[in-house]
Design brief:
Keywords: Signal. Helices cover 11% and strands 41% of the residues. By secondary structure, the chain is mainly beta. Strands 1, 3, 4, 6, 9, 10, 12, 13, 16 and 17 form a ten-stranded mixed sheet that branches.
Length: 245
């Protein structure tokens, strides 16, 4: 009996020694129709709402959101859907893993003193891992560095710990048809009149201070039945948009 008690105590010490804490993400800006899938239903999100690990967030047409993920920030452009696959802090390390199903995200990763940040955004075939502070990744697997350095790779190589391509600020790259990262290209910007925002509006507002920050437009076409504004992708369109400073 004494030996069994010792094993139990040792197991408890191991559990507490790892110091793993689940974290929540906080919505700090909403424009248009932004929803979370929770309990089998789509629920409208507002500024100040919490989003937990494994939950899926969706934005509608002409809709955007800003989410504080631990100490970092993610902007969601229109018609974007993400799932927060990992959201925790362990042994002074923030662990964030976001799956981008459709749309465009911008990540601004903040490095806090004495803390390490493991921050990844991935699609079905590509992985962007934080080495810097600011980048955009979309569902066509195109990445654009806005600040610092980002490591970019296909998911298979990343799973085998094969180093990826380092994307610097003002560089663009993507995965080709064979899931290889194309050579980086500097200062290439494509624009289209019908596309005026891809995580850019929310990004420029920085959440709390800009015009319209924190406001929410009532969801249209069914409200909580939502997620319906996010269509499944039917083709590949590559658009790289230069955000305002």
């Amino acid at each position: 009996m004494r030996k069994i008690k010792s094993i139990i105590i040792a197991a408890v010490l191991v559990v507490f020694g790892t110091s793993v804490f689940a974290e929540d993400a906080t919505v700090t800006f909403v424009s248009g129709k932004v929803e979370v899938q929770r309990g089998g239903k789509w629920i409208a999100l507002q500024k100040g709402d919490k989003v937990a690990k494994a939950e899926t967030i969706s934005t509608g047409f002409q809709s955007e959101a800003k989410i504080k993920i631990i100490d970092s920030v993610m902007y969601l452009g229109p018609v974007t859907r993400i799932t927060l696959e990992e959201l925790s802090t362990a042994n002074q390390t923030d662990n964030v893993n976001v799956y981008l199903k459709t749309g465009t995200t911008r990540s601004q990763v903040k490095h806090v003193d004495n803390k390490r940040v493991n921050y990844q955004v991935h699609t079905a075939v590509a992985v962007a891992s934080c080495r810097g502070t600011d980048w955009i990744l979309d569902d066509s697997n195109t990445i654009k560095g806005l600040g610092g350095t980002v490591e970019y790779n296909d998911t298979e190589s990343a799973s085998r710990s094969v180093g990826g391509v380092l994307i610097q600020a003002n560089q663009t790259a993507k995965l080709d048809d064979n899931n290889n990262v194309t050579p980086t290209v500097s200062n290439v910007v494509s624009s289209a009149e019908e596309v005026n925002s891809t995580a850019a509006t929310a990004g420029s507002l920085e959440g709390e201070g800009g015009a319209g920050a924190g406001t929410e437009v009532a969801p249209s076409n069914g409200g909580n039945n939502g997620g319906g504004d996010t269509p499944e992708p039917t083709g590949t369109v590559v658009i790289t948009i230069e955000l305002p400073e």
